[in-house]
Amino acid sequence: MDTEVVVVGAGPSGLTLACALRLHGVAVRVVDGAAGPATTSRANILHARGVEVLDRLGALGDLPDRALTALTVTQYLDGRPAITVRFGDHGLGTARPALYVSQAEIEERLRRRLRESGVEVEWGTVLTDLRQDEDGVTAVLGSGTVTCRWLAGCDGAHSTVRKLTGIEFPGVRLTEQFLLADVHAAWPIDRAGGHGWPHPDGPLFALPMRDGGREGDLWRLMAYDPGGPSGEGAVLDRLRRLVPERTGRDLPIEDAVWTSVFRVHRRLADTYRRGRVFLAGDAAHIHSPLGGQGMVTGMGDAENLAWKLAMVIRGRAAMSLLDTYEAERRPLATEVLRHTTTATRLQVGDGPLTRFLRRRVLIPAAALPSVQRRASHLASQLWVSYRRGPLARSARSRLARGSRPGDRVPDLTCVRADGTRTRLHAELGSRWALLAPADGFADHLAAARAHLGEDVVPLTSQQDDAWLIRPDAHLAWRGDHPARLTHWLADALRHEP
To answer: How much is the pLDDT for 497?
Structure first.
């Protein structure tokens, strides 16, 4: 084999997967058909769970210093401010709140981390065909043929990998078109937050952006415009008309850095795996951009897949462990599609009932602190749990009060074996963690390492029982009997659905 894994697509999902695999010592090649890295912003928010993923990969760097970590959005009615909604770290209790930052900057940090691990993205390398058998995959690229044990399609909504493997991508179009643009505009409105103007013809949003990490006059505009131009070249002229119409104010636009036209689709792949080929990110699911759930969901896919694939490649788990990737991640995508679809229909629906609900119920309700906390919590994806997944079901314990197997474990303060303090998430990424009280610690650690090798870091915290935590910060098992831990590991790593 030329390499162990080929990752097709160098967006956030593909780069996350490649970085995570390299942390586990897996040989990777990353190919992308584009001529080079994208420089336009595209997505401009990474929610808390995605920030935690970057942290565990060692790719976060100075992004928190370059980005906004909280944002308010003022909604206007009849041209006047009606409510202000706060997004971001809104009582979530996370050390890694959402970042309002360009997707281009996130990708740059991930490429830098990948480069540190010895891998460069192979740009201008197009996948034209693939063949697989029980031993591996042959990928036909523009630069030649590559053989690998596994291949991952992280190549977006129009995924070549998905099409070549014959995986269906059913769904529907939810809306007509939106216009997107990053524009320079010296507007006399507050850049400490975003602004939204409901309108009978569709909403218009303006969010402040940092230009190279600096404050300035750069704004992200998004407008629903079903009857507008379909070509990107006419977007700027159209927005120059829509802004005064929908805001009721003279807010001139100087120029555009980037423009785009898109229609919102809701699609979900029939399966995330076919043989030795996987899908992740937009290749597996697409949905409305409202709520900023695309990037964080794709990065979560990648981190989940990476540690499982590494376990199989290194011979520490049977191939059946890979079935748990789809079992854990596809139900989450279903939830994300449902929430974003509802939000989009409420924002752009033009029926009398929808307009009434939007103006008289939804906008006033959004001013309530409890509603804002709930919205921030949903968007953060810190709530994601795999309690109903196959790995968690086999780890159920009568002692499990509070956190249960499958739940995300917060970034706890812990103590290493040498007595130094650390953060839990700083110890993960490439390793598992065992948190246990001093009494019986050695027996639990021996049970874990018997199956996982030295990739288990021993830590102490304030738990009354032992916790085994996965590399992606989810609770794998908890209890107070080492023999039960041994039984769970033997079952989980050879799990049959």
So the answer is: 40
